[in-house]
Amino acid sequence: MGDESTISPKDRFLTVYGRKPVLEALADDGLRVDKVILADTARGPGAAEIQRAAKAAGVPVQRASAHRVKVLAGNGKQDQGVLADVVVPRMRALSAALADRRPPARVLLLDGITTPANVGMILRTATAAGLDGVIVPRRGVAALDPLVVKASAGVAFRAPVLRCGSAREAAEMLTEAGYGLYALGASAKTTVFDVDLPQRAAFVLGGETAGVGGEVGELVTEWVSIPMPGDVESLNVSAAAAVLSFELVRRAR
């Protein structure tokens, strides 16, 4: 759990890369861009346009090697030599959220969800439902990149994202903090509609193919299912997240 002791820049920013996403972020009055990093190889009208937009928005532009930009973007092909760090005001370390005087009551924990579209749609749904947090581990889950932002229709910038190293680490921290840990599984007899929930509960959403991993599964308090009278084996994980999120809305009303 060593990486929880310091606040990583990844716990404060969403990094977008590519000329168009960076220009869109700079032009959006609702976003605060911390900085733009431009590859020292980026020249010509495209680079000039980004520099003008950054200056107009009062955002500093740093130069770095093309290799450094690729490393920071985490993408080898589509960064186009530019990235921007966008401040996500509700994103913070899970450890900080759990240490709050009023820790989050209802959170989702993503475990092995590797499709950016699913992560983005889950962030959008959970934010719409007013959930207190979506735990997005740095390892084992799709990186929070422009594909996730696009799938969330921009809501990712406003989502209550909680960061930690891994899903197992999150499960351990939640258990220690007194949360009930509930995992979605198709064969569970208890359903999301009738499970008794404690004051604080976390819901594990497993990966697209393997479901909830064994490391997290062994810490689960109870498995719950979404009843499906029709002849379908399972729902897409983002659809399952929507059912769960709005069942929590219904309960809170």
Can you walk me through this structure?
There is one protein chain. The chain has 9 helices and 11 strands. With 253 residues, it is of the alpha/beta class. It has a 7-stranded parallel β-sheet with strand order 5-8-7-6-10-9-11, sandwiched between helices. A 4-stranded mixed β-sheet has the order 1-4-2-3. Residues 1-6 have low confidence and may be disordered. Keywords: Methyltransferase, Transferase.
Which key terms come to mind for this protein?
single chain; 11 strands; disordered N terminus; methyltransferase activity; methyltransferase
What is the compact description of this entry?
With 253 residues, this protein is an alpha/beta fold.
> What is the radius of gyration computed over CA atoms, rounded to a whole number of angstroms?
19 Å
Assign a percent range to the helix content. Answer: 25-40%
Biggest pleated-sheet summary: 7 strands, parallel
Percentage of residues in strands: 15-25%
Q: Runs with pLDDT <50, length 5+?
A: 1-6
What spatial order of strands do you see in the largest sheet? 5-8-7-6-10-9-11
H-E string: EHEHEHEEHEHEHEHEEHEH
First-residue to last-residue Cα separation: 37 Å
Q: Tell me, what's the shape?
A: elongated
Please count the helical segments.
Answer: 9
Chain-averaged pLDDT: 91
Strand runs, count: 11
Structural class: alpha/beta
| Quaternary organisation of the protein chains | single chain
